[in-house]
Structure formats: structure tokens, C-alpha cells
Known about the structure:
By secondary structure, the chain is α+β, with helices and mostly antiparallel strands. Helix content is about 25%, strand content about 25%. It contains ten helices and 13 strands. It has helices at about 5-15, 45-50, 70, 75-95, 170-175, 290-295, 300-315, 325-330, 360-365, 375-380, and strands spanning about 105-110, 115-130, 130-140, 150-160, 165-170, 185-190, 200-210, 225-230, 235-245, 260-265, 270-280, 340-345, 345-350. A 13-stranded antiparallel sheet has the order 1-2-3-4-5-6-7-8-9-10-11-12-13, sandwiched between helices. It is globular and about 75 Å long.
Amino acid sequence: xxTKHFFLAIFAAVLLVFTSCEEETPTPVEVTSGILPAKFKVxxxxxxxxxxxxxxxxxxxxxxxxxxxxxxxxxxxxxxIGEEAAxxxxxxxxxxxxxxxxxxxxxxxxxxxxxxxxxxLVESExxxxxxxxxxxxxxxxxxxxxxxxxxxxxxxxxNNDPVEGIxxxxxYNIDRVHDADAGDAAFSIEYSSKGNEKYDEYMIVEIVDFxxxxxxxxxxxVDNIKMFVGKNGNIVDVYGNSNHPNAKFNxxxxxxxxxxxxxxxxxxxxxIAVAEVGLPYSSLDSxxxxxxxxxxxxxxxxxxxxxxxxxxxxxxxGITLQPEEVVAYLAPYLTxxxxxxxxxxxxxxQGGTSPSGAYSVLESNVLELTPYNPKEISELAISFK
Length: 385
């Protein structure tokens, strides 16, 4: 069989992740008056949301084993994107608070961002998503109100006691200069400070229609993301999916489109976490944890896709390989893909085996979590009122 470097080159291609431009996030200001909510997000432990790890943990005797940092890079990156969306929402709300909105009103103003006239409308007792909200704030691009999307750039529905609400944003209608390429991209943040039967507080982040590369050069580009974050005391649970409609890990495969589906649980004070990741097809219509995270675990999928690729490549030069032979050969390279993965503030530590008893509660939590139905994420949409 060929050298290990051949296989490492294959894995390097497989684990390629999408890149995106980073824009400066508005700095929140303290909300001291008015009816706008002062908080609209759940903080996530750095062990899960940090996308700039310096530690790419290696837990294997093989020096060329694929690192855990590479395998789990998307997990941290997608969680960081979700948290960034919540940060932006909270920052925008806090800046709107400078108008000291006390009640229902309507006004227009010229945006400092794109120098276009915007309309700000605050209404009370509004129906949305099958419930009544104390207030609704809408910001629209005045000249675009005749468009199909009504020119809406932001809508926030909320109650103040306790604070809970839904914020919808379409960046293009907020800032036509800096977000000129955002197109139909939109995101939604649902937040509740009163929580539910399991969590003290929670938020749900949805992002749809990420701007696409017209050349389709990045086959791993994402279009939709949905993520749940629930906090109970010192514990924060996170689960969700990102959809990659053109992803193909095996160039010989006729099937494309994968979800990056994950569950994770972290301790905020200790900054440690446990995570499990699956790579189901985007077309998979299932709510089963077993199907999404076990049958389609990252290790199983990479083993399957790479085995098929290698067998096909060798067959082209007249060499017949048995599937079990290839899987056994690939195994050492996927040591760090053993589930679950363990993290600390510096990133990935190891996979499969717990570093210490401090992770036991998190291990139990992760087993109770399930990502969203992959097909539903591939069809995700956001609608304004």
C-alpha cells in the first residue's frame, strides 16, 4: 500500500473548512432606560465557542494522526458564529436604546452606516409565532418598503417581565454599504430569561441564506445554521446543525450535501466541555440521535467516504483492495475522532476517553442531547411579520 502521506493529503482535503469575512461587531452600550430588553443572549463557555485555539491536541502514538483541532474546528467555529449573531443582536438593541424609547412610537432617521432613511416603528400587543408580545420594534429601509421583503431590516418582539423575545435581522436592509453582498441572508435569535422545565435561560439561533461564492469554489460552504443554547446553573448545553449543500467528502460519490450536526455540554466556571459530532446527509429526514450521531458519527462517515475513495482510486490503476483492509489502515489516522471529544479552554484534548472525573456530568448531559432533523435544517427559512 502507498505511503501514509498519500492518505494524509486526502484527509487534509476532507477536513477543509469554509472561511468567511469577519466584520467588526458593534460594542453594546448599557441600557439604562426605556422599554427595550437589556439582555438578549446566553453566554457560551470559551471551551466551546473559541474559534482561535492554539492547542490542536494530539492523542496518538502516530505523529501524523489527524489532529483533534482539525476534526473539531468546525464545531467551535459554528458555535462562535451563533454567539456572534446573538452579540450583534444585543449590541444593536442597546444602541437603539439610546433613543430612550418609552412607549409606542414611529420615527424616521438617516442611518450613519449607509446614509439611507430608515423607519423605526414600536407597537404594543402584537401577535407573532402564535403568542402575544408586549412590544414589537421594526426597522425598515424606507425606500424599500414596496419590495417583497417590505424593506425590513430588523424586528424584535419582546416581553419585559421576565425578559423573553424573538429578534429577526436582515443585514442588507440595515446597511446597504457594508452588507451589500448579504443578499437574502437573515438570522433569528429567540431568547428567554425565564427558561423552561430544564434550563434557567435559553436561546435559539437561526441563520439562513449565507452569501454564496458565485464560483462555487468552496464545496464546504454553509447556507443554514440552527443552534440551541440552554443554561442551567454552571452548565451550558449546546446542540445544532449547519448545512453544507455542496459538500462531498468523496469525489467519486454521486451524493452531495452534508449536515455538521453536534451536541455539546460545558461547565462555564471550569471552562471544560464534552462534544459529539455527526455528518449525516442533508437529505436525512430523521430526529433519531442514534441515526444522526452514532450511525453517522464523524468517524464512521470519514471512514466510509475515504474507504470508498481509496478503493476506487486504486481500482483505476489495477489494484483491488478489500474494504476491511482499508478501514483498518485508516483507523490510526482517526484516533482523535473517537466520540465524544473533550475540551478545555485551549481547545481539544482527546477523544473517546475522559481526561478526568470532572467531565462525568457533561458526558451524561451529552447523551441526552440530539441535533435537529438534518432535512429541516437544509430547508430552514426565516420570515418577518
